[in-house]
Amino acid sequence: MIWEHIFLSTEATRGVPKDIILQSWNNGLDNINNSTAYGYNMIISSSDFLDLDCNFTTNLTESQEKYILGAEAPLWSKQVDGVTVSSLFWPHASALGELVWSSNRDAQGRKRTTQLTQRLLNFYEYLVANGVMATALVLKYCLQHPHAYDLDYNQTAIV
Length: 159
Description:
2 domains, 6 helices, Glyco_hydro_20_cat
């Protein structure tokens, strides 16, 4: 496995064997599109996609999509220390897990935001109960008033 920018540099492009997996961490959809167009398998770890509204297969052809092997939630060590690592990593990893494993859409292609929100809140409570001082996923007001805004809203209509 190598970083995608090594492959995308002009000099290196011709010599990278097709059995090498490229790891995308930079330039989001542009680098994913460029790399899959050449038929390389990829692991996505771009911070552009640690948002539940994002989809790293946007604008890829069906033949390009088959080259996406999975994703990871990287946490650059220069941004954390032993005190903050768990509080930052687990909320992001759970959001990416929702996007990659369970998807954020139902069988008809509609967002499953209400169900997703509850799963993420449950996971947050699990982390805190087990001593992980996780970063808050929602405003404190929303936790105290769970049906004041979106938790009781039929979000399947949102595209």
